[in-house]
Design goal:
Strand 4, helix 4 and strand 5 form a beta-alpha-beta unit. This protein has one domain. About 35% of the residues lie in helices and about 15% in strands. The chain is an alpha/beta fold. Strands 1-2-3-6-4-5 form a 6-stranded mixed sheet, covered by helices on one side.
Length: about 130
């Protein structure tokens, strides 16, 4: 990650920090801590979370900037899309998403340690 950021700082392009479709590694340039950002539309972010879920990743620590607005953006747009696809069910709903592709989202504005996935809306940088 450091090498990627150093390359950008020394004349690289911002697009070089997109390390996978809709997965942006530039969030470390604007705030401390490790992390990548899921960026794009509700459907694009849901697609990427679905890919992680299909690999067996079932829990995510999510944050966005500004915190409150991103929590609404994610809760009103991405979660319904994940629910429609059968990838996520609200806690306490009695519904259990299917097998290893199931995911639970834990939005958090204070998680700065470890690996963090930051969900961001269209046009957002992180």
């Amino acid at each position: 990650m450091r090498a990627l950021h150093a390359s950008y700082r020394h004349g690289g392009r911002a697009s070089d920090l997109e390390i996978y479709p809709n997965l942006w590694a530039g969030v470390g340039l604007v705030r401390g801590g490790a992390g990548t950002a899921l960026v794009g539309s509700h459907a694009q972010v849901a697609d990427l979370i679905g890919e992680y879920a299909a690999l067996g990743i079932s829990e995510f620590i999510l944050s966005g900037y500004p915190h409150l607005e991103e929590a609404y953006w994610f809760g009103e747009g991405v979660l319904p899309e994940l629910r429609r696809r059968g990838v996520w069910a609200p806690p306490g709903s009695g519904a259990v998403p299917p097998g290893p592709g199931a995911a639970s989202a834990s939005p958090s504005g204070a998680a700065d340690g470890g690996r963090e996935l930051a969900a961001s809306g269209p046009g957002h940088r992180a």
